[in-house]
Amino acid sequence: MKPIFRIMTVGCMLMTASCLYAAPKNKILKVTDKEFFITEEARRIGDQLLLYQRVTGGWPKNIDMVRPVNAQEIDSLMVEKQRRDDSTIDNNATVMQLSYLARLYQATADAKYKQSFADGIEYLLSGQYDNGGWPQFWPGPTGYQVHITFNDYAMTNTLNLFRDIIGGEYPYDNTLVDTKTVERLKTSFDKGIECILATQIVVEGKPTVWCQQHDRDTYAPAGARAYELPSFCSQESAEIVRLLMSIPSPDSRVKAAVNGAMEWFDTHKLTGLRLERQGTYGTDDYNTVLVADSEAGPLWARYYDLEKGEPYVCDRDGIPRKRLEDIGRERRNGYSWYNSYPAELVPIYNEWKTLTSTSKAK
């Protein structure tokens, strides 16, 4: 495939310096305000990211890396740096830290942030399978971690980062990333797109969407946790389609993949329903329900079964059920079962169709 350059931007969190300190935990790592990165607070956070970075070049997930640490904690973190079993791209890990460090380097020109960024990029490149996919954790993934992982945008986050670096978008200019690395990222990106095309679920000759995970050898939809069964998955598939539509001059395979997925989204949308969260979060009266609403926009279940394409929810017992109220409170309120992400693609898709219909397919 041709080198990839970004032609569409995805909405990102923009926070001004006045509200930074209200950002809970790692959300501050998504800040893009250039004024913030010249502050001492930005450097303090950056220095802590270096402490949390493993010898692999990657970062662990679900850790508050922004909270100030004391001397004793620093000693512990220096020991933890040697771990090789918890680096991941799950839950925005690694990609989020790299984005922050790139912006911090542009504001400070401090070589230690550039080196940390380079180590992180090497980590991402090292995890890619020959078929173009990425596992959830590496090195040494176990269990379902070995699958090609789209869940929680693990692989698409990685490819989006590579795309932005290839395109030279701020803050990823040639002062941060050298030409040889950019060429390696182009090759990696193209392999990733090939993997996406290879794993798209095809039904009766028609491309549809993707599962959260796919077997790294057979490409078949694969399960993960007990309630994450092999399925058609709307949420992660929406982000995959967004990525595919950012490819300039897409070939016929990419066009077919996008068109097939958008057709599937349209066929499987749920109408006349609204997702409602009732009560106070963290209390016994908190509940997640679907309510009838004729004016509500379309929704999609996160999962549709592979046999009939019907929506379902699931508890930790691994048994799919039709209704939210049929699963326990813990999973009902603790997982994203419905979403509207495919609806966000419609205006982008309409513009994309116009642009690509006038271009000559490869």
Describe this entry's structure for a reader:
The longest helix has 21 residues, at 179-199. The protein folds into two domains: 1-199, Glycosyltransferase; 204-362, Glycosyltransferase (Alpha/alpha barrel), CATH 1.50.10. The chain is 38% helix and 10% strand. The chain contains ten helices and 13 strands. It has a four-stranded antiparallel beta sheet with strand order 6-10-11-12. A three-stranded antiparallel beta sheet has the order 1-4-5, with no helix packed on it. Strands 2-3 form a two-stranded antiparallel sheet.
Give me some keywords for this one.
disordered N terminus; 10% strand; 362 residues; alpha+beta; 13 strands; Glycosyltransferase; 10 helices
Poorly predicted residue ranges: 1-23
Question: How many strands in all?
Answer: 13
End-to-end gap = 10 Å
Fraction of residues in H or I helices: 25-40%
User: Strand content of the residues, in percent?
Assistant: 5-15%
Q: What does the average pLDDT come to?
A: 93
What does the radius of gyration come to? 21 Å
CATH architecture of the largest domain: Alpha/alpha barrel
Count of DSSP-assigned helices = 10
Q: Structural class from helices and strands?
A: alpha+beta
What is the overall silhouette?
A: globular
Spatially, the strands of the biggest sheet line up as: 6-10-11-12
CATH third-level topology of the largest domain = Glycosyltransferase
CATH class designation of the largest domain: Mainly Alpha
Number of structurally distinct domains: 2
Describe the main β-sheet briefly: 4 strands, antiparallel
Order of helices and strands: HHHHEHHEEEEEHHEEEEEEHEH
